[in-house]
Write a structure and sequence with these properties.
The complex is a heterodimer of chains A (253) and B (308). Helices cover 79% and strands 0% of the residues of chain A. With 253 residues, chain A is mainly alpha-helical. Chain A has one domain. The chains are: A mainly alpha (253), B alpha/beta (308).
């Protein structure tokens, strides 16, 4: 109950921020499209950003939305949300000394952990889907017509990626007792990975390759899921959850 | 479940290690059904680990336990459904009101348990509409105790239920425990206070370094505590002067400068008060404490166990 209220508030703030970023980006689209050349000259020092602009030049508004909403908005904010929602899940209870009291109630550890996992996971992915659902309406404001379904498929891919980060953090939380340390460590790693993405010669090492504009444009264009990527993300989600259950079952309060 | 198992706690060879430290050595005991059994021992003696093992909160390395007819297995869910537990360490969700905290603690126990808990908390004069972060240490203890005493179960495991309470509340809590035991509930209560549990409990189990002292030792400890005298003189007396004053009576004497602890294996501690006050070759007496050694003091005196 305590955590649910906190999670609900954080999820609401996260959804509002995502929506605000999405709305601003779409409403800015006409000006952006008119000034693509100027933007290209600004990004000449960052080849990866230049590649993204090329994709937008070639594919128009959908590529722009995928870049702005998913690659930039959901990857940046969503990663932070995944880490911040998962880090205190169990470690937070240990840190504040309430772990024993939480475990002493007449519920199985599996149930307690799955409830907590599900609450955080929903707080993480529901805002991604809800904000994605507003894309067609926002596009109508700039006289563009966009469908729902390809964006919802991209939201599913994005959610799977975020759940992977959430799962890893959740596992760390099940094993640790200091949520701040866990959150800072994971945020450092993800920021490093995001920075790596922007380096042309090292970009292929970045985890964010699993949910970038290339992957999302394939999904948007012909509905083709990248099976190896989806399988690796789904495996990560399942393996981290099973490992979290295993660790939590043996945890001493 | 047989009638004999209902409300009983049967422990067979329960063991737990933390790395190289053995927190609880193979421990076997039968408790209840019914009555208050006190688990006594200084800090680090394994009391809390034993209680946590009984509830499935800590996995035993070896041994087995049956609580109210349910064997300890897996994460102990079967036992936690049939028993309540009061944590020894006092941490709460400060952002909740007292009532919301009780509801959180009693989730899965039914509305009737919540109502009883609220009634108990009202008896303790707890401000249930106020956030728990504003509660004193003792009030938090009473809130959690109300949650542990409210459900209708046959077994309650309470880790230091009266710790941090003022004497009035402490007496009230002991009275509640006695009333609960009188209804047939089995209470396993850990405490550091021999005097307190002596008044409330029907049986005492003494733990020392994870090991259960045998019942004979427990009775002996109990009797010696009642027969003990702690005397402080104005200046250090000579050991021989004390022994002379008692005229060769069987006496176990621990002397530290001007303070001495005396045990009388043959009994008769109360008569010795007259001897002490009448002894002319001993310094002036500053204080005498009779029959009120705390468990910690008793352990320190008898076994050299430090802690608490």
């Amino acid at each position: 109950m305590v955590r649910l209220t906190g999670l609900a508030l954080f999820a609401l703030a996260y959804a509002i921020l995502l929506e605000a970023m999405l709305a601003a980006a779409i409403l800015f689209w006409p000006e952006f499209a008119a000034n693509l050349t100027a933007f290209r000259s600004m990004t000449s020092a960052i080849p990866i950003a230049g590649d993204m602009l090329s994709q937008i030049e070639g594919q128009g508004l959908p590529a722009y939305i995928l870049g702005q909403h998913f690659f930039k908005g959901c990857n940046a904010l969503g990663t932070a949300a995944a880490v911040l929602f998962a880090a205190p899940a169990v470690a937070g209870e240990a840190h504040r000394g309430t772990l024993e009291m939480w475990l002493a109630r007449p519920f199985s550890r599996r149930r307690l952990l799955l409830e907590r996992y599900a609450a955080g996971a929903l707080a993480l992915v529901v805002p991604v889907f809800l904000t994605t659902l507003t894309i067609p309406a926002l596009c109508a404001r700039v006289d563009e017509i966009e469908p729902y379904s390809p964006y919802l498929a991209c939201a599913a891919q994005q959610s799977l990626f975020l759940l992977g980060i959430y799962g890893v953090t959740f596992l760390c939380s099940c094993a640790g007792s200091n949520p701040n340390k866990i959150a800072l460590t994971l945020l450092f790693v993800t920021v490093f990975e995001f920075a790596l993405y922007m380096i042309k010669t090292a970009t292929h090492w970045s985890l964010y390759r699993l949910c970038d504009m290339d992957v999302l444009l394939d999904l948007y264009g012909d509905g083709r899921w990248n099976a190896p990527i989806v399988a690796s993300l789904a495996t990560t989600v399942v393996v981290t959850l099973v490992a979290a259950l295993f660790v939590f079952e043996r945890r001493t309060p | 479940m047989s009638a004999a198992d209902a409300g009983a706690i049967r422990i067979a060879g329960l063991t737990r290690r933390f790395g190289a430290t053995v927190a609880v050595r193979p421990l076997t005991a039968e408790i209840g059904p019914g009555g208050i059994t006190a688990l006594l021992g200084p800090n680090g003696s394994g009391k809390s680990t034993l209680l946590r093992m009984l509830l499935g909160l800590v996995r035993p390395d070896a041994g087995s336990a049956v609580v109210d007819g349910v064997a300890l297995a897996g994460d102990g869910l079967g036992i936690r459904r049939r028993a309540t537990y009061l944590c020894g360490e006092l941490h709460v969700y400060g952002e909740l009101t007292g009532r919301a905290h009780l509801a959180w603690c009693l989730r899965g126990r039914g509305q009737a348990a919540l109502e009883r808990a609220c009634a108990l908390a009202a008896d303790f004069e707890l401000p249930l509409a106020k956030k728990v972060r504003g509660y004193s240490h003792g009030m938090k203890r009473q809130l959690l105790l109300a949650a542990a005493l409210a459900p209708e179960v046959r077994v309650r495991v309470l880790d230091e239920p009266s710790e941090g309470l003022d004497p009035t509340r402490r007496a009230q809590v002991l009275e509640l425990l006695r009333a609960d035991a009188a209804r047939g509930t089995t209470l396993l209560v850990s405490s550091h206070h021999l005097g307190e549990v002596e008044r409330a409990s029907s049986r005492q189990l003494f733990l020392k370094k994870g090991e259960l002292l045998d019942e004979a030792s427990a009775s002996e400890l109990h009797r010696r505590a009642r027969e003990s005298l702690r005397v402080t003189w104005a200046s250090p007396p000579g050991r021989s002067a004390i022994e002379r004053a008692f005229g060769g009576r069987a006496l176990d004497l621990r002397l530290e400068e001007s303070r001495a602890t005396l045990f009388f294996p043959g009994g008769g501690g109360i008569e010795s008060l007259r001897v002490l006050l009448g002894a002319s070759d001993l310094p002036d007496v500053r204080s005498i404490v009779y029959g009120e050694l705390s468990l910690t003091e008793l352990y320190r005196e008898l076994y050299g166990v430090e802690g608490v």
